Amino acid sequence: MSDRPIRITVDGEALTGIAGQSVAGVLLAAGRISWRTTRSGAPRGVFCGIGACFDCLLTVNDVPDVRACRRPAADGDEIRTQSREENT
Ligand code: FES
């Protein structure tokens, strides 16, 4: 794995990561353990970590419902967290 740094924004906040990390990896490394809520308000972030549970959804470069655990983070990605209401 390269040590090349990357920079993404999450809800307008700049975060740095390393090329090859998933979006979830960058978020977790930044101390974020949840970034979405269910309709009941329960926090969600990474649960399975392998793309099976869909708990880690967020919007990447205006594409909604991207699984953070499966999407490699790319330099310049603009990410928005999303709530359950956006999907219904
Ligand atoms: S954590 Fe389960 S799909 Fe991403």
List the helices and strands and how they pair.
Elements (H helix, E strand, L loop, with lengths): L4 E6 L2 E6 L4 H7 L6 E2 L5 E2 L12 E4 L2 E5 L10 E3 L8
The structure holds FE2/S2 (inorganic) cluster.
FE2/S2 (inorganic) cluster (FES) binds next to loops.
Shape: globular
How many structural domains?
A: 1
**Mean model confidence by pLDDT:** 92
Order of helices and strands: EEHEEEEE
Low-confidence stretches: none
Structural class designation: mainly beta
Query: From the alpha-carbon coordinates, what is the Rg to the nearest angstrom?
Result: 12 Å
Major sheet, described briefly?
Answer: 5 strands, mixed
Keywords: Oxidoreductase
Protein name: Putative molibdopterin-dependent oxidoreductase YjgC
Organism: Amycolatopsis umgeniensis
GO molecular function: iron-sulfur cluster binding; oxidoreductase activity
How does this model look, in words?
- With 88 residues, the chain is mainly β.
- It has one domain (5-80): 2Fe-2S iron-sulphur cluster binding domain, sarcosine oxidase, alpha subunit, N-terminal domain (Ubiquitin-like (UB roll)).
- It is built from one helix and seven strands; from the N terminus they run E-E-H-E-E-E-E-E.
- A five-stranded mixed sheet has the order 2-1-7-5-6, with helices on one face. Strands 3-4 form a two-stranded antiparallel sheet.
- Strand 3 and strand 4 (43-44) form a beta hairpin.
- The protein is globular, with a radius of gyration of 12 Å.
- The model has no long low-confidence stretch (mean pLDDT 92).
- Bound molecules: FE2/S2 (inorganic) cluster.
- It comes from Amycolatopsis umgeniensis.
- This is Putative molibdopterin-dependent oxidoreductase YjgC.
- Keywords: Oxidoreductase.
